[in-house]
Amino acid sequence: MRNIGITKFLIIIFISNVLESFIAPYLITFHVSVPITFLIFSYAIFKSNQRLNPLFAFLCGLYVDLISGSPFGLNAGLFTIMCYAINSYANTFKLFSYIQICIFFGISTVFYIGFKNLIMNLENFSYLLLFTSLLANVLLFLLISMLRYYFPSVYLRYDQ
Amino acid sequence: MSRVAPTFGSKLLYFFFVCISGLFLYFDLNFKSFEGVKSFYQSTIISSKYLFKKVTLEPLSFFYETTKSKSDLINQNKKLKLELDKSYISNFIISRDSKFFADDESIKSFLDLNSFEKVFHLAKLQYFDTEMYMCCSKHRAFIQTFQTNKNLVGSPVINNNGIIGQVIYADSLIEVLLLTDIDHVLPIVSGNHFCNARGSGKPEIVICKYNNKLWQQKVLIGQEFFSSGMGGIYPKGILIGKVVEIREVDENFNEFDIKLVSSPMSSNLFGVLESL
Questions:
Q1: Is pLDDT of B100 > 60?
Q2: Which of A49, A96, B178, B236 could cross-link to A100 by cystine, CB 3.0-4.6 Å?
Q3: Mutate to test the interface with B, among A80, A115, A116 (most CBs of B within 10 A)
Q4: Are residues A113 and A121 in contact, defined by beta-carbon separation less than 8 angstroms?
């Protein structure tokens, strides 16, 4: 994710959006939402070596709006805000432990889900969904971050 | 290398893009301003999917359907063959219903009286030792009915040519004692000549031994013999076979060989008749 090209990144975003649309109907029965597209975008910014242009985040958001059928500007705005947050705390993250980073991303995800539901799904806005999503996402991130201890070879080339 | 935190200028830029996003959102939600773009994108995606399906999936599914329809045809052919064989056995019974039953009324009352749903149960040959059949005296066939839980011991077994034997043991497999087994005795008749035909242990041959003082009527080569129904197992009047050889055993006794009209090897489908 560090030096990934724009085209590859857009393809990954597209695939993750398709994946999300497949998984979401199953997860929603457990009152859980995992916004994979948003998470991949956040992870890409988090792992990036350089400070990303807000225009990039804005256009990425518009692209996601287009492919996901969301109202134009929703993801664009949220992606821009997320980009700003990550860039602002980029150096602070280095002092954070994995658990703190996971909690940060979990809370960001819940904000994203909350805003999205406020705009697109106000009639069915559910705090239960937000709460269970927070728990599920934090646990998921912890699990993913722990994978490097169980499968160190996967991360070897990045740690050099 | 550390990343530079957003400067005042870039913060303004972020704020600007967030405002733009808000405007986009406002216009989209209130005025549906971007419906054209969305519709264009959706139609492009649908067209691409259609084209992709047309170019890749449809040829594959066509190929699969072709092979599937071929196997369907083979299965259908087998099913039709089974139905045809079944109809042969049914036809055998229908063509001789005056022998099995006096008339249609009798058939109906017989079936009603015994709560029979059908006249015979279709069965398939499971095991038949042809070597034993050709060489030795023990002639047995093992068959399996398609759908019945009834106890069929004692029931006559027929194929599309005629009677081939009777059930002597019925479990998951049905053991059939063939007419040619040396333990089998079949009462037969031709005109006024009654006789008990014993299995010869040879294929398709049963032997009848009679007292020529008692039955003075001459037996001729080619004479047809029918089941007499005297044993209580087989229906009366079914053609069993024709005389092929006559021998004099001693002064009082003669015997003759009857070549059976039915062979257990002519078909692998049988009908097990309902017994009383």
A1: no
A2: A96
A3: A80
A4: no
Q: What is the pLDDT of residues A84-112, one digit of tens each?
A: 999 888 888 888 888 888 999 999 999 99
Cα distances from A76 to residues A12, A34, A86, B204, in angstroms, run: 17, 18, 15, 91
B63 touches chain A (CB under 8 A): no
A76 CB within 8 Å of a chain B CB = yes
Two tokens at A98? Answer: 């994995």
Which tops the pLDDT comparison, A129 or B145?
Answer: A129
Q: How many Å apart are CA A114 and CA A120, to the nearest integer?
A: 10
Contact A66/B38, CB-based, under 8 Å?
yes
Q: A123 with A45: CB under 8 angstroms? A: no
Global pTM exceeds 0.80: no
Q: Which residue of A has its CA nearest to B40?
A: A66
**ipTM exceeding the 0.95 mark:** no
pLDDT over 80 at A39, yes or no: yes
Give SS3 for B211.
strand
What average pLDDT is seen over chain B? 82
Tell me the torsion sign for CA atoms A128, A131, A135, A140.
positive
The identity of residue B56, as a single letter, is T
Chain B residue numbers with beta carbons less than 8 Å from the beta carbon of A50 are: 3
